[in-house]
Design goal:
10 Kd Chaperonin, Protein Cpn10, Chain O, 1 helix, 8 strands
Length: 93
Amino acid sequence: MARTLRPLFAFVLLERPFLESKSGHLMIPRDAAKRLARNEGTVIAKGPTADASISVGSKVIYGKLAGDWIKVDDEREVYVCQDEDILAEWVEE
């Protein structure tokens, strides 16, 4: 049976873009790459009472200490925060 992580209430699940682990000839440890990464991600799911202006697939910027990282499997982590912790959305013009 497959398990799916579904946010409740006004919580939102975010996925961070792929982190580069190499800069030129220098290898960057994964933990250091996470600390250096910007606070942006893609909304992959939202709870039933989350703000209607937030849509799945949106590229957003979130507060640094707003939520928690949850390990879904060996390779994938998602960020769980409340909808009010999302600070801005990237808009293509």
